[in-house]
Give the backbone structure.
Amino acid sequence: AELKPAANLTLETAHYTCLLGSGIGLDPIKSSLNGNYSDDKQLAQYFQCMFRMYNLLDIQGNLRNETIFDAIQSLEKDHALTEEGVLFCQNETSYMNITQNEIAYEFFKCFRNYTEKAYYWSILKYLLSKHQDMYAALTPTQSLKLETVHYTCAMGSDVQLQAIKDSLNAVYSSNNQLQQYFQCVFRMYGYIDKDGYLKNDTMLNSIPTDDKDKTCTENAIKTCQHVWTSSASAIAYEFFKCFRNETDSAEYWTTLKELSSKNEKQDVSNVLVDFLL
């Protein structure tokens, strides 16, 4: 909610941002495009992210009717059907007893059913068919910009930036969006696999040889590799909390704090494009 959507984002960029940030797999998204829905909270987060990326939701999580109708004008065809679907589903969702985090997905399901024969669904299905496993395609690399990772995961998870800042200062909280943010960061660097298991060897191998805090970092990774949680989506944040406490004096926390203190309204397009496209 604190990050401004980029006006020139491609559909593919928005998709990958929300895929990585929400932690959802491709199969539930494909199923939804085919009219087979689920109650997965990460799926609702994915659609909320997509709607926010295109400014279809306001900061309170309500549908932005004017923006939706403006977007319709760019369609090649099926304008009448699309407008009917938007009006019908806006009315339907207004009577639903749902949270703000769920409104995007509920609107999508209604809209997908109403406009089933519209041409754009085949385009979306084609986009998803291009990559079978996004997480498997992510190669851990030190050249991946920390800023790119941060904004990708912040935008995709819809986490409040203050919660990230607090965590960097060892003030922790428990909420799903914060957990999704750290899960996304760990995945982009290859520190957890697609099933949520920590990859400790990858972490150890990623430590620069000239890092003056190398020994401290190695010891912390070995100490924290045994953290446990009943939820696979929470393991990254649990590891982070342990690691943050064990390396409190390390110099790199200063760098991360500086990153998180940047302009909260920054347009994300420039920092996403070098990795996602």
Remarks:
- Residues 1-7, 134-143, 265-277 have pLDDT under 50 and may be disordered.
- The chain has 16 helices and no strands.
